[in-house]
């Protein structure tokens, strides 16, 4: 079990941890030096195990050497909050939700596995992206992004807002294209699921510009198009 540590009262340069199950409980197995870690994603490609870690600045890909995880690849991100690995069109991708750079209006990234590492494949516009969710409906692959905040780092906050739509992108065969905007308010999580023959996307809203934290979360249902 990997645990991402974001920081303490003094610094974001704190260790994250890898725990191993001993048959009865989890025990500390490895300290991982991290910088504002927010999410970790474990996966296996061609028999090799990796751990992708979303950091406050650039993020890292760690590779298992048979005994522990070692730093393998650094790749550009901006306050990454979430990562998700998935396969589409016979290729392996890693989606990264970028939260904040010099502004909250930073693009999020789609990385493609080249056979030895992840390479940037696509940037897509987001606003304080907090979560990514990849799913398939009727053979079509979608990527949903929870947008948290639309604003810049300057003294003029007149156009800044938590009432920012989240995005649903659809895979075109070579890239993701914007398919739908979903009304949301400081969205911080999304979850796709099916019940019987219906598909749903739950969006967790946490704040709006008017009622503050007293805001409903929303359940969207797929209409077929």
TrEMBL record:
It comes from the Eukaryota. The keyword Repeat applies. The keyword Cell inner membrane does not apply. GO terms for biological process: signal transduction. Keywords: Repeat, Signal. This is Uncharacterized protein.
């Amino acid at each position: 079990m990997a645990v991402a540590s974001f920081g303490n009262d003094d610094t974001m340069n704190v260790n994250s941890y890898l725990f191993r199950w001993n048959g009865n409980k989890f025990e500390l197995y490895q300290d991982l030096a991290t910088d504002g870690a927010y999410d970790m994603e474990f996966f296996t490609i061609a028999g090799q195990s990796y751990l992708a870690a979303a950091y406050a600045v650039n993020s890292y890909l760690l590779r298992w050497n048979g005994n522990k995880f070692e730093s393998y690849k650094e790749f550009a991100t901006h306050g990454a909050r979430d990562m998700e690995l998935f396969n589409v069109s016979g290729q392996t991708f890693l989606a990264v939700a970028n939260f904040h750079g010099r502004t909250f209006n930073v693009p999020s990234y789609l990385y493609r596995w080249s056979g030895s590492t992840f390479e940037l494949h696509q940037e897509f516009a987001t606003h304080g992206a907090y979560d990514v969710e990849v799913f398939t409906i009727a053979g079509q692959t979608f990527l949903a992004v929870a947008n948290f905040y639309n604003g810049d780092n300057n003294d003029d906050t007149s156009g800044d807002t938590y009432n920012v739509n989240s995005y649903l992108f659809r895979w075109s065969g070579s890239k993701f294209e914007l398919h739908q905007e979903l009304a949301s308010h400081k969205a911080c999580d999304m979850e796709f699921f099916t019940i019987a023959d219906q598909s749903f996307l739950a969006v967790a809203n946490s704040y709006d510009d008017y009622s503050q934290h007293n805001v409903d979360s929303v359940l969207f249902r797929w209409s077929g198009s």
